[in-house]
Amino acid sequence: MDEIRWSPGIGDPTVMGWLTVVAYLAAAWLCLRAFMVEKAGPPRPYRQAIKALLRVIRKRWPDPPGPARRAGMWLGLAITMLCLGINKQLDLQTLLTELARVAAMSEGWYDNRRAVQLGFIGAFSITALAAAVGLWWVMRGHLADFRLALVGMVLLIVFVIVRATSFHHVDVFLGAVDDDFRMNWVLELGGISIVAVAAARRLRKAGAPLWRGWPPPPEPEPPGPEGKPSAGHVTQLG
């Protein structure tokens, strides 16, 4: 059996490789902070906030409240960006490709690998469509708040899957334009940037700093004529 040409380690030690990892981690941090501003109530430690979100979703499933849905979406984006950043250097899609190549050689269907690749893309597309329908159902009424972030995630997912299939002409398009400019940098960094911008816009809308700290609590409304809060007062729950 052919040897697998992959080993654990740093998959892309170049400047652009590490820059992409930093971009993934920065986007993950912004999404995590966006998650924190979506929930009701004052800021709390991240671990406690995540546990509280899971409790609310479990208790109110299949119809969790809007803030929990939006917070869950940002948390999911943060986890996805973190995993993609780790995978950037582990290069797990290359391991997947190598395992498929070795299986094709040992089982005698290497000459028909293109059909298998197309089947893989088709199966992934159906899975992605089913996931999109499920996402629409869970986030119904709130998807407009995530249009920009979802565009960035679509670019990243398509990029990862196309790279994993390793079509020769796609590899040429993504990686062989020239040594100083590669199309995969545009696609990958473009998707990361779009997600990061979406999270930053959510933080700005909430009045929260981008990297650390939180906006000051709202000033309490003056009492009404009978000692009750005025009509514009909203009590936070948390």
Outline the fold blueprint.
Elements lengths: L14 H24 L7 H15 L5 H25 L1 H16 L5 H26 L8 H19 L2 H8 L7 H24 L32
Order of helices and strands: HHHHHHHH
- Summed over residues and divided by their number, the pLDDT gives a mean of 77
Strand tally is 0
Distance between the termini: 58 Å
Helical content, roughly?
A: 55-70%
Estimated share of beta-strand residues: under 5%
Using only C-alpha atoms, the radius of gyration works out to 22 Å
Q: Which residue ranges are poorly predicted, with pLDDT under 50 across at least 5 consecutive positions?
A: 229-238
Number of domains: 1
Structural class comes to mainly alpha
The main sheet comes to: none
Overall 3D form: globular
Number of helical segments with 4 or more residues: 8
Protein model, in words:
By secondary structure, the protein is mainly α. It has one domain. The chain has 8 helices and no strands. The chain is globular and about 60 Å long. Residues about 230-238 have low confidence and may be disordered.
